[in-house]
Design brief:
With 523 residues, the chain is mainly α. Helices cover 78% and strands 0% of the residues. GO terms for molecular function: lactate:proton symporter activity.
Length: 523
């Protein structure tokens, strides 16, 4: 790689939670907007393509489908490239691919060439930008990560509100070829966003520290390009299954709500306004949900908060299926925008919380691959159901049941199979705790030694006192024996007084000094 710094995520640098991270967040905001809004914005040119190439609407719809399939299905490839070369070079190359695809598409002569250029090349370029931007966002934010994810996810509705009117203006003034060419130039901004993804580098060490680190450094295991060990994590497996079920129905209502409004007899412009309402609510729902998810009592339970968001979204679909007029559809779009924004803000935050920073680059690629299958199956299945029944209510009921089922799977499986582990303190806290424990141990040791010395002094005093009493008792017994022996002369009165005085003095000395004082012999 020459002079390129490979950000393998294993440097152990603490997330700054700000600083240059806000520039990374801005880049992620733009990339998310392009990735999710571009497939929908391209649909503005479908009528022109149908007229140009003489194809049907279903043929042009494959352009958006291929774009989404490449965005999701290229996940493992993106993971391998990021783990091999780093986020910044992958994103800059991806920006070139995204722009090149649209520029080549402006010279296309048949619909197959549009599939290959706009669908495959541009879709691959957007995928090479979307996934690395989320990885870098995860590395730059830790405490404020839920808020950062919510703000970055808001790029999708903002870009949709901007790109769709822009596409209409470009089509009116320059035609679809000129519009594709200008959009290709616009996608070069992905390269600028990729340049913002500066790798995290630890603080510089002194020469002595570097030499000591080289001496103590052990050979690191070879870094895996795609870490399949994430499947050993029960939490990751549960999340992947739930996400796949959710995607089956999550994108169905935005696709069919406009047609549903037209079916009820509303005008085209009035029906299209529903998507604008949905997107406007979505813009504010995502950052707000990210802010709530960052609260101390919510963040440890973000999995269950995500389950609530999915239940909210699915219930909205179930109730919205009974809409009979335009007003009820407007109310449905308001609540769907709130729930849709909550799901969008939390889906990658929950994945980051489950697998951690080191394995996130591999985990997101594998999850997106599984979701790619569901994205290709979900909306077409709903379309076939609509063709068979001609009733929009069944489409919304199916979507709502799928999203609610995913929430139930995620919530119940986490309760049954995931064991709660006590939160691990960060390294700095561990050092502080270690220092505190060491100090407490030393204090306890000193206290214990003082207690032992105090007990030893007490034992010595009591022992000396007992010895003194034994000496005094021995003298008293000797005096009695001498008084009872008739052969021995009786001691003089002065000698008796001297003996009593010596006994009293010995007792006082024993009590005062803590040791036995041998009294003078009275004999």
């Amino acid at each position: 790689m020459g002079g390129v710094v490979v950000d393998d995520g294993g440097s152990g640098v603490k997330a700054p939670d700000g600083g240059w991270g806000w520039a990374v967040l801005f880049g992620c905001f733009v990339i998310t907007g392009f990735s999710y809004a571009f497939p929908k914005a391209v649909s503005v040119f479908f009528k022109e393509l149908i007229r140009e190439f003489g194809v049907g609407y279903s043929d042009t719809a494959w352009i958006s489908s291929i774009l989404l399939a490449m965005l999701y299905g290229s996940g493992p490839l993106c993971s391998v490239l990021v783990n091999r070369f780093g986020c910044r070079p992958v994103m800059m190359v991806g920006g070139l691919f995204a722009s090149l695809g649209m520029i080549l598409a402006s010279f296309a002569t048949n619909i197959i060439q549009i599939y290959l250029t706009t669908g495959v090349i541009t879709g691959l370029g957007l995928a090479l930008n979307f996934q690395p931007s989320l990885i870098m966002l995860n590395r730059y934010f830790s405490e404020k990560r839920p808020l950062a994810n919510g703000l970055a996810a808001a790029g999708s509705p903002v870009a949709l509100c901007c790109l769709s009117p822009l596409g209409q203006v470009l089509q009116y003034k320059y035609g679809w070829r000129g519009g594709f060419l200008i959009l290709g130039g616009l996608l070069l901004n992905c390269c600028a966003c990729g340049a913002l993804m500066r790798p995290l580098i630890g603080p510089k060490k002194n020469v002595e520290d570097q030499e000591a680190a080289q001496v103590e450094e052990k050979p690191k295991p070879k870094h895996k390009l795609l870490d399949f060990s994430v499947f050993k994590d029960k939490g990751f497996v549960i999340y992947t299954i739930a996400a796949a079920i959710m995607v089956l129905g999550l994108f169905v209502p935005p696709v069919f709500v406009v047609s549903y409004a037209k079916e009820l007899g509303n005008e085209d412009t009035k029906s299209a306004l529903l998507l604008t309402i949905l997107g406007f609510i979505d813009i504010f729902a995502r950052p707000t949900c990210g802010l709530i998810a960052g609260l101390k009592w919510v963040r440890p339970r973000c999995v269950y908060f995500f389950s609530f968001a999915m239940i909210f979204n699915g219930t909205t679909d179930l109730i919205g299926s009974m809409s009979k007029d335009y007003t009820s559809l407007v109310i449905f779009c308001i609540f769907f925008g709130i729930s849709y924004g909550m799901v969008g803000a939390l889906q990658f935050e929950v994945l980051m919380a489950i697998v951690g920073t080191e394995k996130f680059s591999s985990a997101i690629g594998l999850v997106l691959l599984v979701e790619a299958v569901a994205v290709l199956v979900g909306p077409p299945s709903a379309g076939r159901l609509l063709d068979a029944t001609k009733v929009y209510m069944y489409v919304f009921l199916l979507a709502g049941c799928e999203v609610v089922l995913s929430a139930i799977v995620l919530c119940i499986c986490n309760i049954l199979f995931i064991k709660k582990t006590p939160p691990q303190p960060d390294p700095s806290a561990k050092m502080e705790m270690a220092a505190t424990d060491t100090e407490m141990e030393q204090l306890n040791k000193v206290t214990q030694d003082d207690q032992e010395n105090h007990d030893g002094r007490k034992e010595s005093e009591s022992k000396n006192e007992q010895e003194g009493e034994q000496v005094v008792n021995h003298e008293v017994e000797a005096q009695k024996e001498s008084s009872e022996d008739p052969d021995k002369p009786e001691p003089a009165g002065d000698e008796d007084e001297l003996l009593v005085d010596s006994v009293d003095l010995s007792k006082e000395a024993t009590k005062a000094n803590g040791g036995a004082v041998e009294p003078e012999s009275s004999l």
